[in-house]
Amino acid sequence: MISFLLRSKLRGLRIIMPSEQSTEQWSEVVVRALKANEISLVAYVPDNVLAPLIKLIHADPYFTVVVPAREEEAVGIVTGAYMGGRKGIVLMQTSGFATIPNALASLVCPFQIPLVMIVSERGTLGEFQQGQAMVCRTMRPVLQSLGIENFAIQEPEHVEFVVDRMIKQAFSTQAPAAIILSPLLTKREF
Hints:
Layout: H1 2-10, H2 26-36, E1 41-44, H3 51-59, E2 64-66, H4 71-83, E3 88-93, H5 94-97, H6 101-108, E4 116-120, H7 130-145, E5 149-153, H8 159-173, E6 177-181, H9 183-186
Helix pairs in contact: 2-3, 2-8
């Protein structure tokens, strides 16, 4: 009887064995999470680390993609879209984040805009450019001083959970959020 009940409860569920490896890339998981949360507008300034994600987004007709000249323009575009009833996200590199504190402090934070940002982290783990290292050291303190929730993803198995929950939290609390992609995740090579 117990065996029958267990089989009927598990029918339709896929059991994943430890030996099975997912071949899905972090960028594919992010796209799935964006769609699940109805994020259809993507504004970004080009970045090599984010290139796999950017390529997938451009190839998918679900997304409207805007490529402004600067990151603060991307913040303004996504903020305006939110005020018009559309959900969006801003993609940038750590050095691009350094250009947006004024837009965050004077627009996004005081007006409780749920701006979601994905930031590819540079300036750590063997970075060769001094400027990138300096900017990296300032990013988290700026996020913390503005009260912006942030989390760095280091492991592929955490991508879906973190991206999904950070988006949900941003929109339910009406507050910005930064998802930081660690070089441990993106495997950035120098």
